[in-house]
Specification:
Layout: E1 4-11, E2 20-23, E3 28-32, H1 39-49, E4 79-87, E5 102-110, E6 114-119, E7 122-124, H2 126-135, E8 145-146, H3 150-156, H4 159-170, H5 173-213, H6 217-357, H7 361-508, E9 520-521, H8 526-533, E10 566-567, E11 572-573, H9 579-582, E12 585-587, H10 590-596, E13 605-607, E14 613-615, E15 620-621, H11 629-739, H12 744-825, H13 827-909, H14 913-920, H15 930-946, H16 954-1016, E16 1020-1026, E17 1035-1041, E18 1048-1049, H17 1055-1072, E19 1077-1081, H18 1089-1105, E20 1109-1113, H19 1117-1121, E21 1125-1133, E22 1136-1143, H20 1144-1151
Parallel strand pairs: 3-20, 3-21, 8-19, 12-13, 19-20
Antiparallel strand pairs: 1-2, 1-4, 4-5, 5-6, 6-7, 9-11, 10-12, 13-14, 14-15, 16-17, 17-18, 21-22
């Protein structure tokens, strides 16, 4: 045995407030004491220190209830501690506890802190302590720790719950726990693998997304800056429009307030008129109410007179009926007096006849009674004989029935064993087929997994190629989109500029068609032409006599410009009317102009490209002083022409870029579809790999289960064969016993004859008794009728005496009633006179009420008219107030709109509207309208939204995601390997547990049958696995047959038999796998002295055959006498337990 329990120490645990040591030696240790002294606390302390965590198992509502709660002479303690000393001299303790010759396990609980465990002074987990004792075939839930009532729980337990004792015998409690932990880890690992697969798919998608996001950030920033400027203008513009609406709403409110004041004044006047009319109503209403009350009172009085007249008539009729009834009563009383005399004579004759019939009744009754008693004695004698013979036949029938039942049970057991054996053999064949199919399916699953793995790798390569191609095409698409946006932006810019410039040029055009619009000057010479001709260019070409330029012939003598001067006509295309003027204008540099100024001929001018002017008459104008209107217009015309050319080129480039972008977009969409298809293929391949892995694991589990089932079925075939052989032997013995019994039918025929004799005697006795009952009933009837006749005579005589008095009384009442009738006949005439007087008064009251009602109706009509006028005024005032309220609401709304606009500016830009205007550096008058700004903001937002979600940390996120992706791929491989290892381990644990459990079952079953026979001095018992073919899931049923009884389940035995059977099972487990300690708490309570002696003999046998140390809590004197040592638990102080010990063996040796 790996560990030996030597000492249990309690401190502050329940009633053991002082440190108390319970020494546990080899052999039998008894614990005795009165009820309620704390004996069971020792067992609970042992369970608690071994890891029990259920407060209900400690008979408490919470775990802190195990701490001493105080008594009348002791204060409560703040902690409880239990220590258990274990002998580990053989060094067989589990690893981690095997470094010393002893193991001290301590559990301590402190209020509001909780429990803590220590082993040899080191802190350990509760789980470690539980596994320590589980490996030692004991623990807090060990069947060897039998508390009060646990025997009945074992008896009433379900078969699967009873299997626990087999697990203890097999020593696989720890194995079960490890398998459960392995299954939990397997389930958690499979869940982790599924989550890792999902996360890997998500990370792959994130990587592709991040690559696209990184290229969109730059354009997003540029659009965002322009958008912020436009949004600022829009916010200010909305605030300005809201402020204008607020001022308009204030004016509307002022007008509405004036209208409401006038309407309220009119309403007050109408209310005063209505109140005046209401003041006239109370006196009129009072007069009408008084008249109505007088009329009602008179009508009530008249109605009362009518009621009185009716009552008088009713009283007259009542009195007349009463007189008639009294006359009838007087006649009836006279007739009754005559009948009473006749009845008295008849009753006296009947009394005389009854007295004659009663003579000689007692003699007849005595003769009938003697005859009935004699018949009853004969019947009793014959019934006693029948009862004795019936008991003999019943015993014979019971023996026949027992033998037949034994034969039937044995045949049924034999048939069942043979049928179960046949089914088990068929199941073995089926299990072999299932195992073969499972092996084939497993091989196919391995091939499918390899194929799926290859497909997954191919799909991964295809996905990588597709992602690479799509990424390259995405780069091209981004470049094409940027080029398209750039080209379209340039075209839009040129289009906007050309349009604005065209509007500006068209605005300066005049209806007179000036020459300025007919000129074309080389770019760069606009300022020179403007300085030379100035406002003269705004004059049109006209016919002679009109104001403007007219066409003249060339000079007769050409006038040349100074040497080295370039004529302006070379860079200007102009109408012929300007030929003479342009021929006399030259283009020079600033230095040459100053030098050649003096040699100019009349009419000649020199200009520089910058706009300097030198005229022949000595005028010199610098470029910044020269008139520039014509020059500016010429520059605008040239710029407009260049813009139109550039716009045509930009539109061509934009169209080319749009076509290129659409082409690249189509290719990108195709590659995206290919990438999605490759991703779907990769996902499907991964799913196929995962499904193949799960199928492979399931098939491995099915194969392992089939192997275990085949092994179990082989054992079942052997077990059923043994059962069939034993049943055949029992059947042979039962048939031999049936032949030795007597003839049951002959015995039953003899009983039937005796029954007929008894029945005849019973009929004779019943006839005699009926005759006696008839004589007795006849005498009793005569006596009863005599008593009734006497009572009736007395009643009739008394009635005859009182009849004359009742006749006189009725005559007096008749005379009184006639007097009352005369008085009642005079009342109706008096009531008729009073009713006539009342009708006259009612007519006067009705005229008064009618006059008061007319006056009141006129006043109420006037009040209704005033009330209608008042309501009209109030309605108009209400409408005016509503209009004012609406104006106030509109003003409030306008103010809220202004405040909302200002708050929005403050919220979004953190400035005031005026500060925003200063920041924008714009004139509010020149600011575009809100709709224009909204269009700009919408356009910019559309451009920004077209970019989609932009991740400015895309590159950094991409690196982090890639690292996480690679890490998870490695973890996935580790998880798959861990799942395979866990499944292999669980299969090994199941196989080992099944083998050990079957071995333990055979051994415990053999021990159980032997111990049962020993305790019952005969009989037989066995254990049967039910509810499942797998021993690990089967239940345990106990079949018992005490001496002289049939085979049945445990629950059909008596209480003492059930207790002995349960003890036999517990000790059978000890013989198979002895626990280091066994505690039995008052298990001998249901047993008598003889069975307690057998129980103690069994304990002695267990101590000789095992190393188990027994701790017996008992009240039985026989059990105490058989203990090696006794510990007494006392409670000298209320609520405080103490422990004293006596070594009985040592005391016996001292006495000897």
């Amino acid at each position: 045995m790996p560990l030996k329990f030597t000492k249990l120490r309690l401190t502050g645990f329940k009633s053991f407030v002082d440190p108390t040591d319970l020494i546990i030696h080899d052999g039998l240790t008894g614990v005795v004491g009165p009820n309620g002294c704390g004996k069971s606390n020792l067992l609970e302390a042992l369970r608690w220190v071994m890891g029990e965590n259920r407060p209900t198992a400690m008979r408490g509502g919470g775990m802190e209830d195990v701490i001493f709660a105080g008594a009348s002479t002791r204060p409560a303690k703040n902690f409880a501690e239990v220590s258990l000393h274990l002998d580990n001299t053989d060094r067989l303790a589990p690893q981690g506890f095997n470094d010393q010759d002893s193991v001290d396990v301590v559990r301590r609980i402190t209020r509001d802190v909780g429990s803590a465990y220590k082993a040899n002074g080191k802190d350990v987990r509760a789980r470690d302590i539980q596994m320590l004792f589980a490996d030692a075939s004991t623990g807090a839930h060990s069947p060897a720790l039998v508390r009060q009532g646990q025997i009945s729980e074992l008896i009433n337990a379900k078969p699967k719950a009873r299997r626990r004792i087999l697990e203890e015998a097999a020593g696989i409690s720890g194995l079960y726990q490890r398998r459960h932990e392995a299954e939990l880890r397997l389930k958690a690992t499979e869940g982790n693998l599924t989550r890792v697969d999902d996360v890997i798919d998500q990370l792959s998608q994130q990587l592709a997304t991040l690559q696209r996001q990184a290229k969109q950030a730059a354009r997003y920033r540029a659009i965002g800056e322009e958008l912020r400027k436009s949004e600022g203008q829009l916010l200010y513009r909305r605030w300005r429009e809201a402020d204008d609406a607020r001022m308009a709403a204030e004016e509307v409110l002022r007008q509405a307030s004036l209208t409401a004041s006038q309407a309220e004044s009119d309403s007050r006047k109408a209310s005063a008129a209505r109140e005046e009319c209401e003041g006239l109503l109370p006196p009129l209403r009072e007069e009408e109410a008084v008249a109505s009350a007088i009329l009602q009172r008179l009508q009530v009085t008249r109605d009362a007179l009518s009621d009185q007249e009716k009552q008088a008539q009713d009283r007259i009729r009542t009195l007349q009926g009463r007189i008639t009834q009294l006359a009838q009563d007087i006649d009836r009383e006279s007739g009754l007096n005559r009948d009473a005399g006749e009845t008295i004579e008849r009753l006296e004759w009947e009394a005389r006849e009854l007295a004659k019939a009663s003579e000689g009744h007692e003699d007849r009754l005595a003769e009938a009674s003697d005859a009935a008693s004699e018949a009853a004695a004969v019947l009793a004698e014959r019934e006693a004989d029948l009862s004795e013979r019936t008991e003999d036949v019943a015993r014979l029938a019971a023996r026949h029935q027992s033998v037949q039942r034994l034969l039937s049970d044995t045949r049924r057991t034999l048939d069942k064993a043979e049928a179960e054996g046949e089914r088990a053999r068929q199941a073995v064949a089926e299990a072999r087929e299932i195992l073969a199919r499972a092996s084939e399916d497993l091989a196919r699953a391995e091939e499918e997994e390899a194929i799926a793995q290859a497909q997954a790798e191919a799909a991964e390569i295809a996905l990588s190629d597709a992602e690479s191609a799509r990424s390259q095409m995405q780069d091209r698409e981004n470049a094409a989109r940027a080029a398209r946006a750039e080209a379209e932006g340039a075209a839009n810019t040129l289009r906007a500029e050309a349009g604005a410039l065209a509007k500006l040029v068209s605005r300066d055009e005049s209806d007179s068609a000036p020459l300025l619009d007919q000129l074309h000057v080389t770019a760069g010479y606009e300022k020179a032409l403007g300085a030379a001709l100035a406002d003269d260019l705004r004059q049109p070409a006209v016919r002679e006599g009109e104001s403007g330029w007219t066409l003249l012939p060339e000079y007769a003598v050409p006038q040349t410009l100074p040497a080295g001067v370039r004529p302006l006509a070379e860079v200007v295309e102009a109408p012929a009317v300007l030929a003479r003027r342009l021929s006399q204008i030259g283009i020079v540099s600033a230095e040459d102009g100053a030098r050649l100024h003096a040699v100019l001929a009349p009419g000649q001018r020199l200009v520089s490209v910058e706009g300097d002017l030198w005229r022949w008459d000595g005028l010199h104008a610098n470029a910044e002083e020269a008139p520039t209107a014509a020059a500016l217009r010429l520059e605008q015309l040239n710029r407009l022409e260049r813009l139109r050319e550039e716009l045509d080129e930009a539109e061509i480039r934009a169209e080319d870029a749009r076509a290129a972008h659409e082409e690249v977009g189509a290719e990108l969409a195709e590659l995206a579809r290919a990438d999605a298809a490759a991703r779907d293929a990769r996902r499907m391949a991964d799913q196929q790999v995962a499904e193949a892995g799960r199928r492979l694991s399931r098939l491995e589990a099915e194969r392992n289960l089939a192997e275990g089932k085949l092994e179990t079925l082989d054992l079942s075939v052997r077990r059923h064969s043994d059962d069939a052989l034993a049943a055949r032997e029992a059947l042979t013995e039962a048939e031999a016993a049936a032949e030795d019994l007597g003839d049951l039918e002959a015995a039953r025929a003899e009983i039937e004859d005796l029954k007929l004799t008894v029945e005849a005697s019973r009929m004779t006795m019943m006839t005699k008794r009926s005759m006696w009952d008839a004589v007795k009933r006849e005498g009793e009837a005569r006596l009863k009728r005599s008593q009734q006749v006497t009572q009736e005579l007395s009643g009739w005589r008394h009635r005859l005496e009182t009849a004359n008095l009742r006749a006189e009384e009725l005559q007096a009442r008749k005379e009184d009633t006639e007097i009352e009738l005369d008085e009642a006949c005079a009342a109706p005439e008096e009531i008729a006179i009073k009713r006539e007087e009342m009708n006259a008064q009612i007519e006067d009251a009705e005229r008064r009420r009618s006059a008061a009602g007319d006056a009141l109706a006129a006043a109420e009509t006037a009040l209704r008219a005033a009330d209608i006028a008042s309501r009209d005024c109030e309605r108009q005032a209400g409408e005016a107030r509503e209009a004012r309220a609406r104006a106030e609401a509109r003003l409030d709304g306008a103010r809220e709109t202004v405040q909302h606009a200002a708050d929005r500016i403050e919220e979004e830009l953190e400035v005031t509207p005026n500060a925003l205007l200063a920041r924008l550096e714009l004139d509010p008058k020149n600011m575009p309208a809100s709709d224009v700004l909204e269009e700009d903001v919408t356009r910019l937002r559309r451009q920004r939204d077209a970019l989609g979600a932009v991740n400015l940390r895309a590159e950094e996120d991409m690196r982090e995601v890639a690292e996480e992706h690679d890490t998870l791929v490695g973890e996935k491989h580790d998880l798959e390997e861990a799942i395979k290892a866990l499944r292999t381990g669980i299969s090994g644990l199941n196989k080992e547990g099944r083998a050990r459990l079957l071995a333990a079952f055979d051994q415990v079953n053999e021990n159980f049958g032997m111990l049962f026979t020993h305790l019952f001095n005969g009989g037989e018992a066995k254990l049967v696995m039910v509810e499942s073919d797998d021993p690990l899931d089967a239940g345990l049923e106990i079949m018992c047959q005490p001496p002289g009884k049939k085979l049945s389940v445990l629950s059909l035995l008596s209480g003492g038999e059930q207790t002995l059977t349960a003890l036999a099972l517990i000790f059978a487990v000890f013989l198979a796998n002895p626990a280091p300690i066994c505690v039995l708490d008052e298990v001998d309570a249901p047993l008598d002295d003889a069975n307690v002696t057998r129980f103690c003999d069994l304990l002695d046998e267990m101590t000789r055959r095992t190393d188990t140390r027994f701790l017996i809590i008992t009240h039985h004197a026989v059990t105490m006498a058989r203990m090696d040592r006794l510990f007494g638990v006392t409670m000298a102080e209320q609520g405080v337990s103490q422990l004293v010990s006596v070594d009985l063996k040592k005391a016996e040796s001292m006495v000897a």
